[in-house]
Automatic annotation (TrEMBL):
<dbReference type="InterPro" id="IPR003779">
    <property type="entry name" value="CMD-like"/>
</dbReference>
<keyword id="KW-0560">Oxidoreductase</keyword>
<dbReference type="Pfam" id="PF02627">
    <property type="entry name" value="CMD"/>
</dbReference>
<keyword id="KW-0575">Peroxidase</keyword>
<dbReference type="GO" id="GO:0051920">
    <property type="term" value="F:peroxiredoxin activity"/>
</dbReference>
<protein>
    <submittedName>
        <fullName>Uncharacterized conserved protein YurZ, alkylhydroperoxidase/carboxymuconolactone decarboxylase family</fullName>
    </submittedName>
</protein>
<feature type="domain" description="Carboxymuconolactone decarboxylase-like">
    <location>
        <begin position="19"/>
        <end position="101"/>
    </location>
</feature>
<dbReference type="InterPro" id="IPR029032">
    <property type="entry name" value="AhpD-like"/>
</dbReference>
Length: 108
């Protein structure tokens, strides 16, 4: 796995003000990933789909980046988003795809 990307400014700000809170959130994330049979790649693709549903650009970037770092291809990342079209609607999918394509373009 590659070196962890720097945290966004808003994340660092919360971490500075509430370090115990961020630590607990990160521990929860680690615990739920270990709680089942999905590997990191699949887990991040699932979380990516949820982030797209929420229209959370930061979470879409984060989970797309981590899915790619875990071995997902750009096509798998895009597929994880378009799979939820009938659930979250085309506008949400289109927005998430644009955020993912920005990320993928920067990586190449």
């Amino acid at each position: 796995m590659s070196e962890q990307a720097p945290k966004p400014g808003w994340h660092r700000s919360i971490q500075e003000r509430h370090p115990g809170f961020i630590e607990a959130v990160e521990e929860l994330g680690a615990a739920v990933r270990k709680a089942g049979p999905l590997d990191d790649k699949v887990a991040h693709l699932v979380q990516l789909s949820a982030a797209a549903a929420l229209r959370s650009e930061g979470a879409v970037h984060s989970h797309a980046r981590r899915a790619l770092e875990s071995g997902a291809t750009p096509d798998e990342v895009r597929h994880a988003i378009i799979l939820v079209t009938s659930t979250i609607g085309f506008p949400n999918v289109a927005a998430a795809l644009s955020w993912v394509d920005d990320l993928i373009a920067k990586r190449h």
